[in-house]
Amino acid sequence: VNRFRNFMAGRYGGRDALNMALIVLSLILVVIFLFIPIPYISFLAYIPLIFAVYRMFSKQISKRQTENYKYLVWLGKIKGSFRGIKKRAQDSKHYKYYNCPECKQKLRVPKGKGKISITCSKCQTKFTAKT
Ligand SMILES: [Zn+2]
């Protein structure tokens, strides 16, 4: 144990979110590649794992921290765009989208109001539509 501790001294250790993600990704790929009948493709599954191990033993600690930080920023963006998609899906339950017959401007109107008159917010063209 002591020898291992000496060996790990000054190394990154890799107990961060990025390494967790790499290990999980590797496991997922192993399972996926079980179902893909291409020879040697399963080796690809170990690439994230190898990278995770490399990060663990790396001595460039600040570089590894930057990687993890970038990963977290990227993850935040992904989560944000998922929220956007979800919001639009919820929106479509309550709103209907029309394109203005004149200027093709996209217009959002509430659903379930029957026949209504819509005024384009861009060119003020009036048209009727059923919602
Ligand atoms: Zn218009």
How does this model look, in words?
The chain contains 4 helices and 4 strands; from the N terminus they run ααααββββ. It has a two-stranded antiparallel ribbon. It has a two-stranded antiparallel sheet with strand order 3-4. The longest helix is centred in the middle third of the chain and has 34 residues, at 61-94. It is of the alpha+beta class and 131 residues long. It is 54% helix and 15% strand. Zinc ion (ZN) is lined by residues 100, 102-103, 105, 120, 122-123, 125.
Strand content: 15-25%
Order of helices and strands: HHHHEEEE
Number of helices: 4
Small molecules bound in the structure, each named once? zinc ion
The Rg value, from CA coordinates, equals 26 Å
**Helical percentage:** 40-55%
* pLDDT averaged residue by residue: 92
- Give the spatial strand order of the biggest sheet: 1-2
How many strands in all?
4
**Poorly predicted ranges (pLDDT <50, ≥5 residues)?**
none
End-to-end gap = 71 Å
Q: Report the major sheet.
A: 2 strands, antiparallel
Q: Give the overall shape.
A: elongated
